Amino acid sequence: MVSPSFFQENEFFLDQSRCIGCQACVQACAECDTHRGHAMIHLEYIDRPTGVQTAPVVCMHCEDPTCAQVCPADAIKQDDDGIVHSAAKPRCVSCSNCVIACPFGVPKMNNGYELMMKCDMCYDRTSLGKKPMCATVCPSDALYFGKREDIERIRQEKPVNEFQFGLQTVKTKVNMMTAQENENIPVDVADFMAGATFTLPETRTGAPDVANTAVFDLPEIVKLAKNEPVEELQV
C-alpha cells in the first residue's frame, strides 16, 4: 500500500465550471485495471433543456460516508486512506439503499452484476502512488490531483471540502472549487426548484409548489384532433 504521505501531500480537486464535456475522463476511467471496462465517473448536464454545459461527478469520499451507514449487508468499506470503495460483491444485496441515500448522487447500481459500483479514486493506481486516471487526462483541469498550495496559487477559486445539506454538515476527501468568501457549500434540493431562494433556512418549511410550472396549454391543432373547443385559427 502507498505511504499515507501520498494522500497527505496530494488531494483531489473538482471544478465543474471548467468541464467542457469531452468525455475524456469517462473513457480513461474505464481503463483502470480494477474497473473491468466500466467507467466509474459520469457527466451530468447542468440544465439539459437550455444548454449543453456538463459537470463531472466523482465520489466525494465522505469522512463519514452515508452510503456505508445505510448498507444493511456491511458491503461498503472505507480504508485507512479515506477512500470509500464500491460494494464488495460477496456481500452486496443490490438493495440500492446507498444509491438513494448518497447526498451527492454518486453510487450507481449495475443491474447486470447486481452490484453497486462507484468511483474509488482509481485505487489500483493511487495505492501505488499514481494519480487517478480522470485527473491525468482532463484537458481543462476540471479534475485536478495535486498539492493544495499549487492549486491555490494558480486558481482564483477556493478549494472547499465541507458541504451543508440542510442542518447536516458533510466533510469530504474531495475538494470543490468555489468563491473565496465561501467556507462551505450549501446544497439543498429546494434551492433548484421554481420560486426558491438561495438561502439556507434554519428549519425545513416545505418545498415550493411547482405543479403550476408543469401546466401548459395544448396547441390549437392538438385541440382540434381531440375535438376540444378552440378559438378561431389565424391563417
In words, what does this structure look like?
This protein is of the alpha/beta class and 235 residues long. The protein has a single domain, classed as Alpha-Beta Plaits (2-Layer Sandwich), CATH 3.30.70. The protein has helices at residues 5-9, 24-29, 66-70, 97-101, 123-126, 133-137, 148-154, 220-225, and strands at residues 11-14, 42-45, 54-57, 108-110, 115-117, 143-146, 158-165, 168-178, 185-186. The strands form 3 sheets. Strands 6-1-8-7-9 form a 5-stranded mixed sheet. A two-stranded antiparallel sheet has the order 2-3. A two-stranded antiparallel ribbon has the order 4-5. A hairpin with an 8-residue loop joins strand 2 (42-45) and strand 3. The chain is globular and about 45 Å long. Mean pLDDT is 82; it is low at 196-216.
The proportion of strand residues reads 15-25%
Distance between the termini: 75 Å
Write down the overall mean pLDDT: 82
- Taken from the alpha-carbon principal axes, the silhouette is globular
Oligomer category = single chain
Number of self-contained structural domains: 1
Return the CATH architecture: 2-Layer Sandwich
Do you know the CATH topology? Alpha-Beta Plaits
Q: What percentage of residues falls in helices of 4 or more residues?
A: 10-25%
